[in-house]
Amino acid sequence: MSEKLKPCPFCGVTPDVEFELVEQNWKKWFVKCHTKYCPVDKTDWSVNKQIAIDTWNTRHKEERE
Q1: Sign of the C-alpha dihedral, residues 19, 21, 22, 24?
Q2: 14 burial class (0-12, 13-18, 19+ CB within 10 angstroms)?
Q3: Local structure of residue 30 (DSSP, 8 states)
Q4: Distance between CA 34 and CA 65 in Å, rounded?
Q5: Residue 30: φ, ψ to 5°
Q6: pLDDT digits (tens, 9 = 90+) for 44-65
Q7: Would you say residue 7 lies in a domain?
Q8: How many domains does the chain have?
Q9: Is residue 4 part of a domain?
């Protein structure tokens, strides 16, 4: 597992890992591309940071190879 994010597959910008505080000790993690006109906004939320990173870094083409 790595915390390194792949660039956005559409615009090439490196995204950010962010979270929303839902309750005092519970965060919803997601990866967000901040390019204004990129078709990717953010991943679905995840229960932890590493799952959000792994979700972002997974490319469907790589899964099939």
Answers
A1: positive
A2: exposed
A3: E
A4: 29
A5: -155, 165
A6: 999 999 999 999 999 766 544 4
A7: no
A8: 1
A9: no
Would you say residue 35 lies in a domain?
Answer: yes
Mind spelling out the 3-state secondary structure of 5-19?
A: CCCCCCCCCCCEEEE
Residue in the structure block whose two tokens are 């190879």: 65
Q: What pLDDT shows up at residue 64?
A: 47
Minimum mean pLDDT range among 2-6, 7-11, 12-16, 53-57? 2-6
Query: Would 8 be classed as within a structural domain?
Result: no
Quote the domain boundaries for residue 22.
16-60
Cα→Cα distances 31→23, 24, 64, 65, Å: 20, 21, 23, 24
Q: Which amino acid is at 17?
A: V
Amino acid at 49: K
Rounded to two decimals, the pTM is 0.78
Which alpha helices (H) appear in 1-65, and where do they start and end?
Answer: 49-57, 60-64
